[in-house]
Amino acid sequence: MYAASFDYYRARSLADAQQLLAAHPGAKLLAGGHSLLPLMKLRLAAPPAVVDIGRVPELRGITRVGDVIRIGALTTHADLATSTELVGAAEALGEAAAAVGDPAVRNRGTIGGNIAHADPASDLPIVLVALAARMIAAGAQGERTIDAGQFFTGIMTTALADGEILVAIDVPVAGRGQGSAYAKFAHPASRYAVVGAAALVTIENGMFSAARVALGGLLPNARRAPAVERALIGKPSSADTIAAAARLAADDVGGDAAGDIFASAEYRAAMAAVYVKRALETAVARAKPGS
């Protein structure tokens, strides 16, 4: 199926993109194209105009400034997966990016397009929530920062306002005794997450002093797992502690688990504990050298 007719504009800069959006109500941004174009071809989206920001240089790149890694919204999944800046600093993010789709998707798809699309089965939102990332959005009133936990509001919906453009993502650098990891049950055809779990832990003297665990794939939007986190804090970073905490993942999912012809809601909720356990085990192993 072909997309409905639309006008196409190529932005030369961020300011140019903002002007084009303001001049064409209902226009959609095009970055890598792996989220918007399939929807348009299926006639699930029919914007009157498309503003291509794929060649705006100021929206690309990975830089570390102090204890923060800033990632331009046009940075590709492949760039994230091979970035040396993320090694030891935000390993779960590189890990998740390497698991996105196939090489064609990873080399063309962008982090900004991915998270602005907010597909509930996408990998990166789960990790960004766990890592306490902050989204930088630019609009007519200037820039504002949105915590990842408040950014993803539902199925394919975010806190971005009309006319705002996601320009960058700030990810805190892992500190001493911290480790992060991502684990997912991937759909064999699409590679989307049937269940995805991300963990960021802090280990001090062999004990969990802090933990952030996020779930996605089976939920309307990526979100933290507070019951799992509470079961870790102040406990030894042992296999028994991890196993006991992971079993509480079903409590965090509650009745919000989604089901389909591939996997029922009950099955996905059961698998949440398995993948939370795997993410925690790897995060703890990565944290120990710095503890």
Could you walk me through the main structural features you see in this protein, from its secondary elements to its overall organization?
With 291 residues, the protein is α+β, with helices and mostly antiparallel strands. The protein has helices spanning 14-23, 36-41, 77-81, 91-98, 103-108, 111-117, 124-130, 148-151, 226-232, 239-246, 249-253, 265-287, and strands at residues 7-10, 28-30, 49-52, 62-65, 68-72, 134-139, 142-147, 152-154, 157-158, 165-172, 178-186, 193-204, 207-216, 223-224. Helix content is 33%, strand content 27%. It has 12 helices and 14 strands. The mean pLDDT is 94. It starts with 6 loop residues before the first strand and ends with a helix. The longest helix is centred in the C-terminal third of the chain and has 23 residues, at 265-287. The strands form 4 sheets. Strands 4-5-10-6-7 form a 5-stranded antiparallel beta sheet. It has a 4-stranded antiparallel beta sheet with strand order 11-12-13-14, with helices on both faces.
Strand content: 25-35%
Rg value: 19 Å
Please give the largest β-sheet: 5 strands, antiparallel
Helix and strand string, N-terminal first? EHEHEEEHHHHHEEHEEEEEEEHHHH
Please state the oligomeric state of the protein chains shown: single chain
CA(first)-CA(last) distance: 55 Å
